[in-house]
Amino acid sequence: MTKLDRQTKGPSDLEHYLKDIEALEGVFVDWDETQLGAIKAYRKSIEALHKEAIRRLISVVKAEPAALSALKNAVTDDVVYAVLRHLELVKPSLHERVEEALESVRPMLASHGGDVELITIKPPHTAEVRFLGSCDGCPASMLTFVAGVKKAIEDHCPEITDIRQVKGLTKGLDQSDSSGVQFVSPFAINQKGDWLKTVDLHDIPEGEILTMEVDGSDVILSRNGSIVSCFANACAHLGMPMDMGDVDDGIITCPHHGFQYDLKSGECLTAPEVQLQPHAIRVIRNKVEVRLAR
Ligand code: FES
Question: Which of 153, 190, 236, 241 registers the highest number of CB atoms within 10 A of its CB?
Answer without folding.
Answer: 153
